Amino acid sequence: MTLIIENVHIAPVSGPEIPSGFLRIDGDTITELGPGQAPDVPGAERVDGAGCLATPGLVNTHHHLYQWASQGLAQDATLFEWLVALYEVWAAMDAEVVEGAATAALGWLALSGCTTSSDHHYIFPKGRGDLLAAEIEAARAIGLRFHPARGSMDRGRSQGGLPPDVVVEELDDILAATAEAVDAYHDPSRSSMLRVAVAPCSPFSASGALMTESAALARDKGVRLHTHLAETLDEDEHCLEQFGLRPVDYMEKLGWLGPDVWLAHAVHLSDTDIAKLAATRTGTAHCPSSNGRLGAGVARVSEMLRQGANVGLGVDGSASSELTPMAGEMRQALLFQRARYGPQALTARQALELATLGGARNLGRQDELGTLEPGKLADVVLWRAGGPFHAAVTDPVCALVFGPPPPVELVLVGGRTVVAGGELRTVAQDAAGRAGADAHRRLLRLAGERGVTAARRVHGD
Ligand SMILES: [Zn+2]
């Protein structure tokens, strides 16, 4: 099966842009791209890309899909206040909540040009069904490439951690369940739609033993490692107080810096921290909307890039970034860096690279994803950047990054159509949205049955 997209502006991310050219896809792979007329291939399906911009599919490298069900709560809280308000709500979730929330959240990502998403799920209340299987089923239905990270917490309040003991698990149970998840689902093949990572939640909710044992497990299984790090100054203080080290030094001590690790946020870094991340090729997932929503700070992304550290983007959980579309995160990254460092801190092309190749590197898939090149998987987005309103900007990459995301004409994952004409084609779009709203109501009802209502309060109430 051959598909040809023609008359299109191509921003391949690697190599020069092609203002009017074609892209040829055979099966799940890009086989050719170039300027001018497309070759005549008998039997090929042809898509007219006039007025559109073709980019690699966006890669989301930090999320908590289940949080779709807890949006709009603890609206004016700091990260630690927000977590404390929400842990007990999340303790009530079950597989039905997770599947509904993941369906809506992944559908939303697809509609904003995302073709690969990771997820960091770290709460597994006992007796609530198979939550990991539920989100994997949602990803299969929507048709995105999925990198679920089996998260975990074992350091409850009684052990000096932040979460209440009711949401943490025992170390041995975590390691067994994580190994089981890797064995059951991880597919290391080139065209893999599903790879599993190992992901203790954060230094303030996971013990040092869980961190080191998780690293050993991941390296034994040949999968990647993910956690939250250096998100807020509260975390800095917590690490200094409890471990006598700042977050990056603590991770270094635990064997958690390396090319197989990517860290969410990495906002509060010293010059030495940045040098360590660059030297060890440890990746980071920059989540500017979430950092803004929680008032966490502005990550030193442009300095990290100058030092050669890898940075990808993440929308983060929908409860801390609310309805952030993946494409919008490029704009947010650009604006945050410029607000902090001036107008040359990050270009539109660099923002696009963070959202594509930077993300693919975080997930260890830079050989297969993240750019439009012959031999890469056909994860492609066509943006209607020349539509009636965006057409006033004749640079389509500028229109994509500086403005509100243009409508998505086509999203291909491995050559398969997931979105066409701005609509999900793999599932009924309205039903996917309703599944998210139902999950929200169900979670609040289940939490209410446990007497948990505090998260509804906002400051000033
Ligand atoms: Zn997060």
Automatic annotation (TrEMBL):
EC number: 3.5.4.32
Cofactor entry: Zn(2+)
Record's keyword annotation contains Metal-binding: yes
Residues annotated as domain Amidohydrolase-related: 54-418
UniProt keywords, alphabetically: Hydrolase, Metal-binding, Zinc
Leading EC class: hydrolase
UniProt GO molecular function: 8-oxoguanine deaminase activity
Record's protein name: 8-oxoguanine deaminase
InterPro entries (UniProt xref): Amidohydro-rel, Metal-dep_hydrolase_composite, Metal_Hydrolase, Metallo-dep_hydrolases
